[in-house]
Amino acid sequence: MDTENLKIQIKTFFGLEPILAEEVRKLGGRNVELKNRAVNCEGDLGFLYKINYSARTALKILVPIDEFKAYNETKFYEKLFKFEWDDFMSVDQTFAIDSTVNSERFSHSQFMTFKMKDAIVDFFQNRYGKRPSIETRSPDIKFHLHIDRELVTISLDSSGDALFKRGYRREQGEAPINEVLASGMLQLAGWDGKGNFLDPMCGSGTLLIEAAMIAMDLPAQIFRKRFGFQNWKNYDETLFNKIKEFRIERVREFHGKIVGYDIDGRMLDAADANIASAEMEDIIEVRRQDFFESKKELFPLLMVFNPPYDERISINDDDFYKKIGDTFKTNYPNTLAWLISSDLDAPKKIGLRPSRKIKLFNGKLETRFLQYEMYEGTKKLHKLENKED
């Protein structure tokens, strides 16, 4: 493996590719290319460590190690059996394989995963007279198999557990938002830690914690205990420690306020537990408050929130979105507000024309991330409502 010129693929959610690409550039990635739900780039081993530790919108970071064409299962197995697997793992290490298959020739992804496992095990048995063990929950080495028609790509997963698992979540609500999606939403909304932030339906507090991490420039994985690359043969512990120290030195003070409202006491308890786990009790305030009975208290203010989804949490009030719009217009003048919703008719119900609409996915749910700008004065409101997308 050429550790000075690694080809790297970074997975993300649909709609967050430009945000991730900007993160990658700022962290020193070379030859950055936007793909569907991914960003490709090049960098050295230090950059690979840095992107794992710091990138907020990365889900998984892969390093391709082999690529070939296979037209049937026999050729697929033969190519993999001949590969030098002991360059990347030892016979005493455990391994697992994730797979993505998009091919008419190889339609069954689980079967192709089994064939790859057989090839790896047989390689070690043939060379060392010993078989490595497969461990799906917490393997030492994780490989990724990607088949696009007849093109096979084998990658090392440098992250291990998916990078949305930040390490601070202790409790979750009925419909928690993914940490990577939450951070991407905040960056799309322009949150940079200047001013004040409100999540008026905060649930278990994910948006609040991610907002605080951005405001303080905390590395996204500051709470993570382990990365996949730490089990690689070429792992440089001294280099990784230097990268962590450098990033920690950049952490800054935050002088604004980050506030969350919720009407559910259980959700507030969950948020308190997560905020305490993230050691942010002095930075984030949560309180029991009905958004529809609230008024603007912070100036200037950015609001980002994830209202309950019909598909995941029942909303009994038919006027739910209308009440959001009424609260915007009446109680939050001169405020920029964003919300994400899988109810694609939500804009009509809110009664304000969104100034921006961004298509995102929350899990498998197609959603819209909507921006609303509330101005004082009927002239500006009228102009906003008639503004084209």
UniProtKB/TrEMBL annotation:
InterPro entries: DNA_methylase_N6_adenine_CS, RlmKL-like_Mtase, RlmKL-like_Mtase_CS, RlmL_1st, SAM-dependent_MTases_sf, THUMP_dom. Transmembrane segments: none annotated. Pfam families: RlmL_1st, THUMP, UPF0020. Keywords: Methyltransferase, RNA-binding, Transferase. The keyword Methyltransferase applies. PANTHER family: RIBOSOMAL RNA LARGE SUBUNIT METHYLTRANSFERASE K/L, RIBOSOMAL RNA LARGE SUBUNIT METHYLTRANSFERASE K_L. This is Class I SAM-dependent RNA methyltransferase.
